[in-house]
């Protein structure tokens, strides 16, 4: 009756739809042929509004087409920009044609539309011709095209995005009498950001925000409540829920569902039990609705709103829908616009959000961003490099304040080529990581290109356990006293870090609470790897030293908590290429490399493996390649990451790696020697320790999973990361107890309830009742786990970086 899926309300005969003011306004705009952009926070019911509008238009005989752009595009990294642009336009056309073919009144008797296999010189122009001449030619019929998850466009590379957006702009700019098509975009990006796609776009769109339910609007639920309650008036039930949610679409449905589950009670007891449910299931433990809001407010598009939130906690602010800070705070989900006209106010979203995102939370956020933990001074950068960083990034120009301040003396990742520094914003104290590349016409440039391409791609996924780029490009700067000009490249990544290898307290906390901490973090890292593997990216370098620990605000019970992020995977392709080159041409490297010698020590630095524990976590295939083992398989695959992940989480569930056996694996002090048989024995003893765990302490499914992940001799006998994510979720069923009713499930896609789509990819581990956000990729089971995808919003930081990579 209450299909809790994002902000949507079902459209079936036994379900309800909450009509809001935006429905009438947008229906009027689209009926007049005025193109629209509907924007709202996640879980606000954008998609259900689109479905409802389609229903109304079809009743009038208007042809409606709906596309979910989050699943529309696949990008081949190996292609050049011209081919990528052609492919994006082709894929858009194919998705469009597929939807048209399912709507008989749109293309009755039409033939298939074909796109040339080779790259097209002007894909945007061809796409326009095929749409307007063949797919949906002008005539008496009107078309309304809904493009949901339009944030996905922002994550496309510049050339493909330019081609697709120019097509949309051309369709919008064509007068209705010549081509009667009306577009409706739905997303969660600020309207001002659309200008970055195309300068003409904002002028062609009516931008309309979607607000939360009002108390009057949720009267539609009364028929579902009246048969259940006799001790409490149905209106009182709505009041009890609305007092907590203030119309948040998803939370309103969740609490109404819980009220019916609680059953017939008087108003006082019902309010008490609903409050207990909120405290136990939303405030006191991780929940997607709150977690996703916390993550979004820290994204570049919404971060400015964080400073306004401090004032909002003290008092409501007069609403201004044109104020970028207010719009950013609203789209993050932390605030809502209430009232109309001159009486409109910007308010905290609801009491649930105010209890969670309170002054203590805000203080912890600022503490986290202003006091980055120290980084070991191993491989400290030389003075000339430090001076270069200070001159370029830490000095203001023309009286303007410096953009960053340096927080450490840097670390050498590859001597002469690759350095890493801790930076912070002087005003907000928010930490960043600077990666600096020198000698960009030699190895440094090749390294930068590989790192940049991978990070641009990964940043678009917007995954909590993957890094996000803030800025990047290349510059020319003076080099100290002699003022010699030097070219260098750089990438700035959001957030500072301390690695898991340096965080014994974090591992101890995981080991103390295996079910709620260790298993949830295991699930998140596995899901991040699944994102990579779906797009044919192999980490190849996964160990505790390549996992960042980011402290998050403390939960209500006062225990510290963290989020783990994969790092250094972006170097894997170059490391692989260099090691293989070194192995095959040890004595004569390319002439262009000059006297540069890629020694094992340099490669080890690049792998960031600073301890024997780190090296032991690498797959046997990688170590065989790194140490040039003869007669052993060295071909790495997606299964190599699965082995490494199993090695990493072993210490969370069982114990530290056995030190005595570890010393036998790498007998020398300088880690230049590797004993494969000792490594195999180490892994065998770890597998035995897993099997020896008593049945009551860990689910059998989880023990089996960890053992299979550590298969030493046969990589293909290891599970895929897709299977790992699935098994983690299943093992939680065995771990639940009668005292813990919060059984975990693998959430389904938000439209799995309302549309005929089969999604086979399991999503991140969530508690019962939690939902995935828009921006989570969804795929059919036939293509999982390796289909490439591009999903989630991207940022403007990629523009310069993409241009520099050309």
From TrEMBL:
PROSITE patterns assigned to the protein according to its UniProt record, in alphabetical order: PROTEIN_KINASE_DOM (PS50011)
Organism expressing this protein natively: Candidatus Kentrum sp. MB
Lineage of producing organism: Bacteria, Pseudomonadati, Pseudomonadota, Gammaproteobacteria, Candidatus Kentrum
Taxonomy, superkingdom: Bacteria
Gene Ontology MF: a single term: ATP binding
Domain Protein kinase: 407-736
Protein known as: Protein kinase domain-containing protein
């Amino acid at each position: 009756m209450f299909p809790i899926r994002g902000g949507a309300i079902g459209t079936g005969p036994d379900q309800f739809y909450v009509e809001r003011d935006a429905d009438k306004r947008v229906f009027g705009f689209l009926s007049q042929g005025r193109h629209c952009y509907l924007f709202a926070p996640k879980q606000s019911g954008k998609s259900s509004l689109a479905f409802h509008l389609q229903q109304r238009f079809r009743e009038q005989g208007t042809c409606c087409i709906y596309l979910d752009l989050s699943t529309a595009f696949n990008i081949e990294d190996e292609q050049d920009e011209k081919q990528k642009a052609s492919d994006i336009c082709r894929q858009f056309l194919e998705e469009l044609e597929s939807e048209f073919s399912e709507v008989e009144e749109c293309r009755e008797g039409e033939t298939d539309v074909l796109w040339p296999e080779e790259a097209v010189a002007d894909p945007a122009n061809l796409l326009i011709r095929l749409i307007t001449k063949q797919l949906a030619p002008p005539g008496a019929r009107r078309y309304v095209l809904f493009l949901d998850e339009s944030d996905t466009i922002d994550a496309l590379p510049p050339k493909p995005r330019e081609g697709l957006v120019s097509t949309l702009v051309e369709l919008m700019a064509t007068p209705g009498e010549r081509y009667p098509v009306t577009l409706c975009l739905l997303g969660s990006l600020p309207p001002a950001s659309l200008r970055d796609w195309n300068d003409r776009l904002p002028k062609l769109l009516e931008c309309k925000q979607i607000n939360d339910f009002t108390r009057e609007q949720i009267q539609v639920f009364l028929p579902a409540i009246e048969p259940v309650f006799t001790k409490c008036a149905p209106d009182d039930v709505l009041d009890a829920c609305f007092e907590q949610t203030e119309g948040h679409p998803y939370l309103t449905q969740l609490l109404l569902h819980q009220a019916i589950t609680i059953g017939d009670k008087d108003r006082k007891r019902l309010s008490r039990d609903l409050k207990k449910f909120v405290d136990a299931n939303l405030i006191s433990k991780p929940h997607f609705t709150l977690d996703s809001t916390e993550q979004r407010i820290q994204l570049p598009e919404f971060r400015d709103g964080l400073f306004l939130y401090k004032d909002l906690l003290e008092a409501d602010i007069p609403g201004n829908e044109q104020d970028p800070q207010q719009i950013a705070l609203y789209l993050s989900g932390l605030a809502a616009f209430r009232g109309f006209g001159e009486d409109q106010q910007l308010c905290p979203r609801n009491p649930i959000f105010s209890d969670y995102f309170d002054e203590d939370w805000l203080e912890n956020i600022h503490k986290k961003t202003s006091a980055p933990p120290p980084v070991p001074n191993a491989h400290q950068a030389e003075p000339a490099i430090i001076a270069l960083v200070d001159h370029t990034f830490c000095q203001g120009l023309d009286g303007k304040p410096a953009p960053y301040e340096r927080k450490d003396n840097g670390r050498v990742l590859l001597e002469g080529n690759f350095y890493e520094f801790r930076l912070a914003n002087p005003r907000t104290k928010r930490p960043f990581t600077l990666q600096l590349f020198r000698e960009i016409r030699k190895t440094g440039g090749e390294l930068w290109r590989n790192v940049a391409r991978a990070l641009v791609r990964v940043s678009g996924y917007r995954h909590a356990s993957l890094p996000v780029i803030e800025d990047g490009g290349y510059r020319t700067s003076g080099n100290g006293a002699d003022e010699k000009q030097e070219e260098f490249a750089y990438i700035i990544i959001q957030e500072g870090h301390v690695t898991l290898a340096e965080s014994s307290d974090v591992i101890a906390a995981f080991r103390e609470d295996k079910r709620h901490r260790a298993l949830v973090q295991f699930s998140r890292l596995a899901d991040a790897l699944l994102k990579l593997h779906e797009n044919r990216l192999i980490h190849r370098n996964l160990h505790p030293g390549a996992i960042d620990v980011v402290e998050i605000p403390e939960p209500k019970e006062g225990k510290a908590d963290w989020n783990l992020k994969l790092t250094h995977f972006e170097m894997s392709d170059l490391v692989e290429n260099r090691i293989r080159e070194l192995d095959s041409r040890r004595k004569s490297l390319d002439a262009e490399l000059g006297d540069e010698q890629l020694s094992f020590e340099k490669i080890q630095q690049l792998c960031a493996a600073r301890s024997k524990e780190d090296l032991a976590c690498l797959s046997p295939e990688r170590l065989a390649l790194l140490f040039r083992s003869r007669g052993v398989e060295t071909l790495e695959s997606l299964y190599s990451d699965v082995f490494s992940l199993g090695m990493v989480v072993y210490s969370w569930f069982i114990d530290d790696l056995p030190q005595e056996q570890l010393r036998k694996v790498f007998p020398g002090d300088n880690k230049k020697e590797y004993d494969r048989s000792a490594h195999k024995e180490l892994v065998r003893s770890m597998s035995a320790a897993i099997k020896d765990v008593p049945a009551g302490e860990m689910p059998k499914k989880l023990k089996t999973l960890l053992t299979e992940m550590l298969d030493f001799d046969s990589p293909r006998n290891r599970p895929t990361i897709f299977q790992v994510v699935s098994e983690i979720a299943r093992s939680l069923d065995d771990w639940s107890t009668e005292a813990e009713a919060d059984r975990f499930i693998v959430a389904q896609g938000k439209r799995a309830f309302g549309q005929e789509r089969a999604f086979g990819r399991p999503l991140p581990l969530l508690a019962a009742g939690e939902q995935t956000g828009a921006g989570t990729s969804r795929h059919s089971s036939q293509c999982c786990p390796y289909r490439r995808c591009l999903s989630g919003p991207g940022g403007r930081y990629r523009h310069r970086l993409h241009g520099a990579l050309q």
